[in-house]
Amino acid sequence: MKTLIHITSEKLDPQACVEAVSYPECGGIVSFVGTVRNQTKGKSVLKLEFEAYEKMALKEMQKIANYAKTEFQVEEVLIHHRTGVVEIGEEAVVIVVAAQHRKAAFQACEYCIDTLKETVPIWKKEFFEDGEVWVSAHP
Q1: Cα 38 to Cα 46: distance, rounded to the nearest angstrom
Q2: Is residue 62 part of a domain?
Q3: Taking the model in full, what pTM does it have?
């Protein structure tokens, strides 16, 4: 079993991510693709910018993947996150989970994105027509 954890300033490729965790023994593959939307709280968003404390972020992402594998008994977990400027419609995060059965894959994927947003040191800045604001990654 392997876990694919990655932080990059390059565009993410959701299809390649799915292919990376596709194995004959896995009957359920669930993916979450987080894209940049054009609004937040009724305000038009022009773009986002992500920054990460990369060494710690990778370590935390690995912990999330390891826990998901053990807790939900899934075969593969992939977590890719983008840094730098991400335009409207582009992917900011891709999570793919492969398991023998769909229920485990769904549960693990939800756990991964929820926990990533709560614990991983990745911050985003939202850009608006009238300014910009850093958004707390951790509620």
Answers
A1: 6
A2: yes
A3: 0.93
